Amino acid sequence: MADLGSDAQPPAGLVAAQSVAQRTDNTLISRGVAVGTSEIGPAAQVAAIVGELGASGLGPPSTTRVGLSALVTHPDLPMQQRRAGEGDYLVLDVAPAVEGWLGDCCRTFVVGGGPEKHCLVGEVERIQSALIDHVRPGMPAGELFSFGAALVADAGPKILDLLDNIGRTSGRELAAEGCIDASNDTPMWGAWTIEPHVGTQARGVKVDDMLRPPHHGSAVVL
Asked: Which residues contact 197 (CB under 8 A, 6 or more apart)?
């Protein structure tokens, strides 16, 4: 299974790990990122913040991407000295470990720029909200992918994920029961991340939340 714990209560370690992930992203966003900041700078801050918040470290490495680099957010690709320019998108993807459990939260924000720069971010956030609302406990993961792919196609951008998915199972391991992609019919029980990575016109946006569809009732966002 994607996680343990009772049907009513998710594992405390998983909840704690996800809280650290969310608070880390919020801390970095509240501090702001100045024009000229490199991808490496925020990545170093992430490591310090998760430790201060009680994490033992990071599961996969944190991913901070700026500008064109936001089109590819895989953690195995090293961060660069690429500098943030006015209006660039900055992707902050954090996966801390707490008591062996892995959190996962990603947000994208704009480095300066006017309201028009926020259009794609808002569109992906709307897609994310619709995906979360569409989840039904036990539904096949591939069914959610089809729904999400249609939303993205209707909006105009394209899915950028290198493995063509929009999420995966989570818990003590990443993707132990696969990803939310066209070929995975695994029923959605336990913890899953919903993380569309979408882009258009040399801009990439990624949003990542974790939810837990119980056997009874609506899915709960952790």
From this structure: 73, 159, 160, 161, 166, 204, 205, 206
Give just the sign of the alpha carbon dihedral 35, 117, 24, 176.
negative
Cα–Cα distance for residue pair 65/38, rounded to 1 Å? 9
Full-model pTM: 0.91
Q: Which residue's structure tokens are 């999420």?
A: 167
pLDDT in tens, 80-126: 888 888 888 999 999 999 999 999 999 998 887 666 567 889 999 99
Interaxial angle between packed helices 12-31 and 40-52, expressed in degrees from 0 to 180 and rounded to the nearest 10: 130
What distances in angstroms separate CA 189 from CA 195, 215, 220, one per listed residue?
Answer: 17, 7, 11
The answer for residues whose C-beta is within 8 angstroms of residue 9's C-beta and 6 or more apart is: none
Q: Which two tokens stand for residue 52?
A: 């201060």
| pLDDT tens profile 174-217 | 888 899 999 999 999 989 999 999 998 788 999 999 999 876 66
26: closest CA among 55, 50, 57? 50
Asked if 197 and 206 touch (Cβ cutoff 8 Å), the reply is yes
- Cα dihedral angle (176, 197, 163, 79), rounded to 10 degrees? -90
Write down all domains in the chain, each with its CATH number in brackets.
Answer: 12-221 (3.90.230.10)
Which residues, in sequence order, are bridge partners of residue 205?
Answer: 198
Beta bridge partners of 193: 168, 210
